[in-house]
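hi support,

uploading two proteins for the ticket. first:
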Amino acid sequence: MIDAAAAEVYLRPRLPEADGRFAIAPLGGGQSNPTFRVTFGDRAYVLRKQPAGALLPSAHAVDREYRVLRALAATDVPVPRTYLFCDDRAIVGTPFFVMDHVPGRTLWDPAMPDLDPRARALLWDDANRVIAALHRVDYAAIGLADYGRPGNYFARQIARWTRQYRASETERIDAMDRLIDWLPGAIPDDDETTLVHGDYRLDNLLVHPVQPRIVAVLDWELSTLGHPLADLAYHVMAWRLTKAEFRGMAGRDLAALGIPSEHEYVETYCRHAGRGPIERNDWEFCMAFSMFRLAAILQGIARRALDGTSASADAVADGARARGIAQAAWRQVMHAAAGPRA
């Protein structure tokens, strides 16, 4: 619980327009870092803090989130304005930062059933534009040259998520074993480095209250310097996975919904990003890697659910999806080896 009185004493003199009655209340959304709506009268802010308790050394780094949001403020990437970072644990129990409360909608289903086809098309195009804008950012020029380790991203990530998966393994998943053996030898020669979000999904994009456009990109906890195609492929998994597998739209009539095909979406990204076509084998590797990474993340959720340490009501169901996603990834590896996708 947050000490509201201590929070008010600290925040009121440090935030603009902090007049009127103070209130603080939790914001939902499933973020791993607890998030709260702070109001002074009609003026609203968002406070995002580390969770309490023992944490892994690199986890829940709200200081990194604050840093990247401040750095991106002058770019074409829409992010909330930030106001302060505080590492004094006496205020709300853990380090935190405060940013603007941006009005908008969170959409969880990539098929966007409540929108019409034109709105879906425009919104997906804007999501495409924003991720391309992120990858075009000169990260050194905005002070993020040391935000990660340039180069060798895939090899480091495969090793990291293999360790995480093995540490949380609850049962043998043959497809994961095959991916762990195959991925290191299939890494593309092209070794690009850009700023990457790490979790660029529709539900981490805040949509304008009435218009089909992105007003803020949220949840930068996994951001770093990495390979842009890894970031893009993780985003495009929505085209390869079904809703039942994990928040996807595979098997839907995309043309009728006004949503571009995967091929069209990737081509649009290349235009927005100012790059040439992506070589097919490189793209299939990126998709398999992204599914492997997601399966490893979900396996960790399964382990925590089994140990009784997960706070999420959906942990058991989410963790159970690791096997299906790993199997889908390996099927795609085999399909790609057999010839071009239909």
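and the second one:
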Amino acid sequence: MQRRFMTADVFTDRPFGGNPLAIVLDAEGLSTAQMQSVAREFNYSETTFVLPPRAEAHTAQVRIFTATKEVPFAGHPNIGTAIMLAQVLEQSGHAPLERLVFEEAAGLVPIRLQREHGRIASAELTAPEPLSVGASASREDVAACLSIAPAEIRESVHPPQVASIGLPFLVVELATREALARCKPVTAEHARVLPPLGTDAIFAYVRSGEAGDLQARMFSPLDACTEDPATGSASGATMALLATLHAGRDGEQSWRIGQGVDMGRPSLILGRTEKRDGVVIAVHVAGCAIRIMEGTLGPLA
């Protein structure tokens, strides 16, 4: 059996920017091992597999694989899959969609489509889990992981801290944009420092310009991803962490996170956090996606 696939660049509105994603549209009947093999073949940071939903009210079951493992949730796979799947459904005669709901290992992921001149322009997901905060790391350990000096890590707002809205990252604030540009992951140090903390990735950021504007890089060499061009799940966790630490008790804050610039794949991740009685009650991550390739897989042995 041949299975349709397409690829998209996510968190960008132009080809060859953002984060590449592979989407297998006809995944029903594939085993977990086959899905992992397909993801390894594409060798992108993630590949998604679209399956019939378990509940009729939902759009699809979506499984997400890196080149080495399945993950319970991720940002750019949801944004890219939602936009591409909605385009395919509407091109086949389905009524225009406003909202999709994906069943994933981390829970239900609602996604709202945003249109311009009647065409799907972007999508916004709501994180499946509230913010959870885990272990922290020393400046010395993080500096060793990133090949920078300990003094270039800022701790006045938070220490290097594991944060998650469905997938955990070590979130680290750096003092300058220049320090962020010089970061170079050291795999042996990642292997020493990160697994005991319950993560395999570092999301490093600096503040830039207006409140809510960040520049970031994400490194995960332990998961065959030396650097990721756009990481929605890490961005969402960072937004939620910073919103939680902000003094305000109520309100909505908007975020703009630039990523991928230092690796030649500029990306823009937009977000919103909603806070009530001092608690972040919702995290939303949004962005564009553009179709790049499509074809068929298989037959798969």
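thanks. also noticed: The longest strand covers residues 107-116.
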